[in-house]
Amino acid sequence: MASYLMGLQSGLAESLAASEKVLVLGEDLVDPYGGAFKVTKGLSTRFPGRVFNTPICEGGFTGVAVGMALRGYRPVVEIMFGDFLTLCTDQIVNHMAKFPSMFNGQVKVPLVIRTPMGGGRGYGATHSQSLEKMFLGLPGIKVVAPSHVHTVSEILQHAILVDDDPVLFIENKVLYPLDQPDSVYMEQSDEIPGYPTVAFRNFSSGKPDVTVFAYGGMSREIVPLLEKLHNDELNVTAVFPSCLWPIPEETLVRYGAQCDRLLICEEGSVGFNWGSEISALLYDKLWRNLNAPIARLAASSQVIPAARHLEAEVLVNTEKIEKAIWELMS
Amino acid sequence: MNTLVRMPSLNANEDQAIVTDWLVEDGAPVSRGTEICIVESTKATHDVSAEEGGFLRHLVSKGQVVKNNQPLAVITATSNEDYTAYLAALEQAESVTSNRRWTKKAELVAKKIGVDLNALAGRIPDRVISEADVLAFNKTAFEGTDLLEDAHPSLRPQRILLIGGGGGGGSVTLDAISRVRHQRAVGILDNNAALHGKTMMGVPIIGPNSMAAELWTNGSFDAAIICVTGKIDDRAAIFDSLKEQGIRFANVIDPSTVVKSYVSMGEGNLIMGNGYLAPSCTLGDNNFLASHACIEHDSKVGSHCTFGPRTTTSGAVTIGDRVKFGMGVLIEPYLIIGDNSLIPSGCVLTNNVPPNSVIKVQHSQTIKGRD
Amino acid sequence: MPNSEKNNQNLLRSFYREMLNIRVIEESLLDLFARGAIGGTVHTCLGQEAIAVGVVSAINRDADIICSNHRGHGHFLAYCGDARGLVAEILGQSTGVCGGIGGSQHLQKKNFYSNGILGGMSPVAVGMAFAEKLKGSGAVVVQFMGDGAMAEGAVYEALNMAALWSLPIMFVVEHNQYAQSTHWSVQHSGALELRSEAFGVPMSDIDGNDVEAVYDTTQRMVNEIRTQCAPRLLFMRTYRLGPHSKGDDLRNPEEIDYHFQREPLLRLREKLEPSWVAMVEQEVRQEVAAMLTELRGN
Q1: How far apart are CA A186 and CA A182, in angstroms?
Q2: Using CA atoms, how far apart are residues B111 and B115, in angstroms rounded to an integer?
Q3: Taking a C-beta distance cutoff of 8 angstroms, is the pair B54, B77 a contact?
Q4: Which residues of A touch C98 (CB under 8 A)?
Q5: What is the pLDDT of residues B182-218, one digit of tens each?
Q6: CB atoms near residue C35 (< 10 Å)
Q7: Where are the strands (E) in chain A, listed by range?
Q8: Is the pLDDT confidence value at B367 over 80?
Q9: What is chain C's alpha carbon radius of gyration, rounded to the nearest angstrom?
Q10: ipTM of the complex
Q11: What is the mean pLDDT of residues C48-56?
């Protein structure tokens, strides 16, 4: 059984082994340290001259990776905490995302920016956010955020080796130690090649009472909850797309159509977020089917406190999700 | 006032930790912030501090493995205070959820349909009560319905099957149904084979009208509505044939139509938008009222009639069966319109109409150029 | 005359012709802008032609790489001479080098890349140099920026990494004294030319209006970069004769006039035969006019 962290480690190692074009750069990646979250542990030893420590200049070395990608490499950048993507935003928005289409398809930028997002670890306001919503809808990039229900190693390898678009690869840090759960009631759709959407059910036949849409770290809260709800006779399908942008529209609508009560959960803050766009999509296609307004959960609109008990009040957790589900049912 | 000290959650991957040492003796005084013991998971050690001042009373011993969030100690206000009652109350409060005798789904359904769960729990002492138990307990109240077989008995809207719904009558019917919460269109039957497999406003056109019996037997719908509006004989024949097979009919009424007090109607009536059914009027079965139809107070309509848009009766009019009205027909008070009559558009009826009549209207319309 | 002198004369003539070509095209673009034929904005390099021609002539145009900025028409023309592709691009035509999508500030052809974010291309250029070093291609990356961009933090991140990793890159600073409307002296503290050496990037500070000096210094520097695989910075003093973009010039006319007396084409003409200069002037103007007529379809 491999954890999410091991999946990422093997995804990187397999990619480096598969192609000489793959390079890895970021802060403190080289052994013996092996990265703040140990995702690159062992790589610099196994692949000498292919894994680089950078100075602490996220914007600068993201630009470096863009330059490498323009000149034929397939670099992977690690940003130590997703919160620091703000420092890379000019390179992401005005360079990485623009070049392929602004230069009329004459160049490619096959670049993966990996970064851990999310709270739950008491890191406080500047090391706990889920800032991916800032990049959702940006033309020219993909935003990928696998959950622990996905085979993360394969998704990462696809992003690095196959996908010629720039990819922002979001890893929720609470997922690192989790093993991919087993379930007979799990199905996968590949509307966006290489980035599957996984649907996880807690029932064998019949239709769901509630369908939950969520991504990234939310799987840690939802998967155990499904078993509890099963004991309460509630049929729930939890749908986890690994690709946030572009949206696997057909897949999400197909699962939404199976049910007349829908809930959207995400860890990032409320307002102009993933759930806004997904609920607009689902209303557009499914409003006739719905028996209740689509429910949405997100972090409240404030900084993420450092103290665990205060942080728990701000972020979405299992209890809040369960409460929202029963509210939908009543 | 007692304060409980619990095992903290040291990392996300482990649900327990070991108490490696007590830093404060059992019964000794502590103040707020005093470090009282050391706990250790496989990855980290942690000092647990007192959140309140008082006297520390150990609940576990050194070396013991304790699940996250389970009690380690109680801080009491005096050194010899008895805290057993406090712990018992705490335990009882925490066991409420684990001792629940029924599933939440069962609770939800019981609440909606009015079943006393405690009474039911008395009858079924040996296991957790399920949704099916609740429904079985209340079975008599639901005899004659298919609620038991449905996943959402208490929540489900009436599922409507449209008969002959592939044309214009179908689209106005679907629209009317889409505007209400208590009904939902689940399928359309139509004898035009070219339409089968297609959808209309998101609803599938399943097959010919003859499939209704099979769908009814399978419990695929709760009630039918006939969308044929042109030929009265067809409309009536379908209705009679489906009734014979035991199929129930719905009344589909666009919510923009006003239905006043003491209106009574049979079944299978299809009433479109902006209509007006005045107090104490009566409709039989299987009538079709197009938009802006007005049936004034105390009027009586038989069965299988069709009313074109803006047809209006005045008060206390009596209409037989199978009467076909064109558009904009006006009917004076107290008149009687006999069965099987045909009233063309724009007619103003001022006298009774005997059965089987066809009213002829002389339209005199001359067109000339402007000067 | 001796051979070397003749060769030198030929080189100067080719410099002049290229510089004049840039000058005439930039003037034509301003004219087209004034007549409403060009949307958006146009940043011309009037007065800085010696830098574009001197630097680019000293590199290997087939293998080396250029990262340019918003004021990059001169760099582009010196690099590939594709005037038709450039002007069509700026006119928004599908035959432009980027199909009209890029426009004036966003040009790409072969190993030429420009972007409109000040300082943004510095780290990208460092990454390109890193890539070429890893490949062992021997290519050098030339990254153009103005004194205005030297206020951007990205430039210093780039200088640090280029020196840290010993990469084959030449940073070229065109100190044209103005950032948009603001004189450099009121937005920079300290000496701009001394900054790169703090990162361990050797620098040369020369007159950017002297095309021979630009050419010679670039040749020497690029040679050092290639043999030592280490970065350099070429700091050149020049003056932006035109407005920042279109007609938005609030500078003292006397100051502009002073610099017109010292502009690079005038200085180069002193070393050339007047009759040849007159002939080439006519030729270039005719060529550009013919191209514009053809592109504009009248």
Answers
A1: 8
A2: 6
A3: yes
A4: 102-104, 106
A5: 888 989 999 999 998 888 888 889 899 999 999 999 8
A6: 8
A7: 22-26, 51-53, 74-78, 112-117, 142-144, 167-172, 186-189, 197-201, 210-213, 236-241, 243-245, 262-269, 295-299
A8: yes
A9: 19
A10: 0.96
A11: 98
Interface test mutation site (partner C, options A57, A99, A103, max chain C beta carbons within 10 A): A103
- DSSP H/E element including C232: strand C232-237
Q: SS3 for A256?
A: helix
Between helices C3-34 and C274-296, what is the axis angle to 10°? 40
CA-to-CA distance for A244 and A155, rounded, in angstroms? 13
Q: Give A288's contacts in chain B (Cβ within 8 Å).
A: 178, 201-202
Q: What does the block give as tokens for B28?
A: 């000794």
How far is residue A205 from each of residues A235, B131, B215, measured CA to CA in Å?
A: 9, 16, 21
Distance CA C76, CA C83 (A): 9
**Looking at the complex, does the CB of residue C154 fall below 8 Å from at least one CB of chain A?**
yes
- Structure tokens that stand for C296 in this block: 């504009």
Distance CA A12, CA A6 (A): 10
Give the chain A residue nearest B100 (alpha carbons). A232
| pLDDT tens digits, one per residue of A225-280 | 999 999 999 999 999 999 999 999 999 999 999 999 999 999 999 999 999 999 99
Q: Report phi then psi at B370, rounded to 5.
A: -75, 150
Cβ-in-10-Å burial (0-12, 13-18, 19+) of A33 comes to middle
Tell if the CB–CB gap between A59 and C154 is shorter than 8 Å: yes
State whether B131 and A209 contact (CB < 8 Å): no
Best residue of C106, C130, C143 to probe chain A, by most A CBs closer than 10 Å: C130
Could you tell me how many residues make up chain B? 371
pLDDT digits (tens, 9 = 90+) for A103-137: 999 999 999 999 999 999 899 999 999 999 999 99
Asked if C127 and A65 come within 8 Å (Cβ–Cβ), the reply is: yes
d(CA C215, CA A139): 41
Residue of C102, C115, C123 lying closest to A60 (CB–CB): C123
Q: What is the pLDDT of residue C254?
A: 93
Separation of first and last alpha carbons in chain C: 46
Q: If you search the block for the tokens 């205060």, which residue do you land on? A: A310
Nearest beta carbon to residue A102 from set C102, C126, C165: C102
Phi, psi of A106 (to 5 degrees): -80, -15
A window 7-46, beta carbon within 8 A of C: 23
- For residue A254, give how far its alpha carbon lies from the nearest alpha carbon of chain C (Å): 37
Chain B contact probe: residue of A229, A286, A288, A311 with most B CBs at under 10 A: A288
Which one, of B240, B263, B242, lies nearest residue B253 by Cα?
Answer: B263
The Cα–Cα gap between C178 and B350 comes to 94
Mean pLDDT, residues C113-129: 97
Rounded to whole angstroms, the maximal C-alpha distance in chain B is: 116
